[in-house]
Amino acid sequence: MLQYWTAILTEATIFAVLALGIDMIWGWAGDFDLSAYAYFALGVYMTMVMTIGKPQSPVVYILGWHLPYPIAVVLAVVVVVAFAAIIGAIALRSLREVYFSITTLGAVWAIYYAVENYTPLFNGYNGVYGLFDPLGGGLSYNAYHYLFFGFCLLVLFVVYLVVQRLSVSPFGRMVRAVRDDERAASVYGRNVFWAKYRTYLFGAGLAGLAGGLFAAYIGAFNPLDWRPTEIFVLYAAILVGGRGNPKGVVLGSFIVYVGFVEMTRYIPSPAARPELGPALRQILIGLLIVLMLKFRPSGLLPERLGNDGTQPRRSWPERLFRSSNDALDGTAAPTSDEVSTVNAPTEDVTAISPMTDEVTP
Hints:
Shape: globular
Strand order of the largest sheet: 1-2
Helix content: 55-70%
Distance between the termini: 83 Å
């Protein structure tokens, strides 16, 4: 039983690193990115093909190096960031909100089908395998998993400290200012594209790092292990914990991956419908996202308020969900013109006639 929970917590720790990267892109910069899981998968593949050596027929894949595991992870992160630089330069230049999301969704599906169908890249459907004991030491199976869990916790702790430090730094405040009002930030001399672009690359780098950890954890990887829809489980974790708050993101990752993903595995499935259990798991995760957007859109640990006491700007899924509720209730959210009219100073309704000194309403 201890071995089982060690494996579950190790997986939750790895995905917490990935969630921190996604939160930088979405929680800080406000870009609803759907390609992060592709960067994660690319990190897994690149780590494995740079550590497991030459392929043996009929297996085929690129590189086939035999590098030490830490060096392979660093190089995998570099490759992921370089790949994200191309997608980010296209998607962030002039696309915003839902158009940005559609572009990144198209990118992840293109990568998925290319990896799945072009066999010389990463062995197609069969994937790559053979990464065993990358940390070395000659430990037993159980001892190695305990060691690797501690290693993942150490990596998560270091990543959390870096992200938390960036969150309260001038860079983090600048990215949030761009998220809240791009025009105002641009007027004050901020380069909107460059701020979002750097955040996007940093988040992609964390996704690649998480992929390197996952390669050592799972030892084998194929397209069935990274359906692009898995990204919504990570967004559920961010919503539960608190978007824009690194502490909340880590908390939400453990709640979702331990409390929802693993606990729902015990849902019984009829013998004639073995796929019912996994389907119910996805339904519950979808309901979790809807309920959090409805009743607790800021999460369990909300993003801290600014110095002026204003609430953080809602993302486009939250605004869309709220507008649909307002339409059902027969009410509508006030427009910017209405808000400016309400907040405008009132003028005196009385006037003095210059000819007669009479006061006229």
